[in-house]
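Troubleshooting: if your tokenizer reports a length mismatch, compare against these two reference records.
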Amino acid sequence: MSRLRIYEDNKHEAPVAVLENHADIAAALHAVGVRFEQWEAGQPITPGATQDEVIAAYRADIDRLMAENGYRSVDVISLKPDHPDRAAFRQKFLNEHTHSEDEVRFFVAGAGQFTLHLDGKVYEVLCEKGDLIGVPDGTPHWFDMSESPYFVAIRLFTNTEGWVANFTGTDIAERFPRMNPHASAGQTSEA
């Protein structure tokens, strides 16, 4: 189940709101300029699938998004718990950063956690299969996949160089909860 926890940015101990209804999550994120939609992830893709397999399975959705929003490149991140570089991949996204373009992700399997820092609040968004999130350019955020990653996400870019981060240099991400291994990975249930 997708979930949004909202915190004051100086109080990481307990959220001020927890939303689990998809429409409520979408409305709360829309209010701060973040796109959150439920898409149909109907193709049988599992973590470990190759980029070519995922793009071929979702070609129609990818083409539609690229045409609607002017995206110029696409890639796929596909990780499962036994990936030899999972710790390095996780560390790459864990600190607060921004991008000079919108960050758009469509989860076609598993789950990942985006955490956004906006207007004195922290929005922790657990994205699951079928969720599409669009984080506007310049939004401070970080991403966690847990120590046992299990997800496949299609990434769309207006920048042909792909993922380019500008780290803010703050330690705020270290003070907020990390993602627990997701139930879809056959690990412990999401806390």
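Reference record two:
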Amino acid sequence: MDFQPLHYIYQPAANHNAHTLLLLHGTGGDERDMLPLAPAMAPHFHVLSLRGNVQEQGMPRFFRRLSMGVFDEQDVHFRTHEMVHFLKELSAKEGFDLQQLVAAGYSNGANIAGAVLMLYPELLAGAVLFRPMQPLHGIEDPFETTRQQPVFMSSGKTDHTVKPAATEAYATLLTANGFQVSNYDINAGHHLTQQDIDLAAGWVKENFR
């Protein structure tokens, strides 16, 4: 496979055995975008932030899309495998525990985190999905996890890019495959709000003491 490395920033915590917060930006962002959220969400975690390898009119993304809200699912598969391959190599280089990764992604970043849940259901220790859409629809076999990891989802009530019924179906699908889903509807659009961060911080504190 012609996998490419990803640009990244890694900030180790004082506790070597801490979880690692894996930050995944939205369309047009980069590895610096979500770093300011880390101290509020998970102050004692290692922090690893990635930049997507796909370009859309000069804007970084984690996988291609065919149009607004329509994903190139073949590329979702490839880019998910590419990112996980990179994470496995990077964990050995930087010394973090791959089984202690908690992803936190916004929009496109949330969607590739969701693809990891579907293609590598045992990999992540948990996931925070801000404004997520179901990234893959062609998986016929179950993708159950035996770890029963917690998953945080927050959606905007006035978000015109994601239909509430689709979010509900996505949450139901993850729950049916063993994930412990906490789903929140925020009084907002597609943009991230302070309420999202506060809810996610409480969820992290509750699930990763």
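Descriptive notes for reference record two:
- Residues 7-208 form a domain with the Rossmann fold fold (CATH 3.40.50.1820).
- DSSP finds five helices and eleven strands in the chain.
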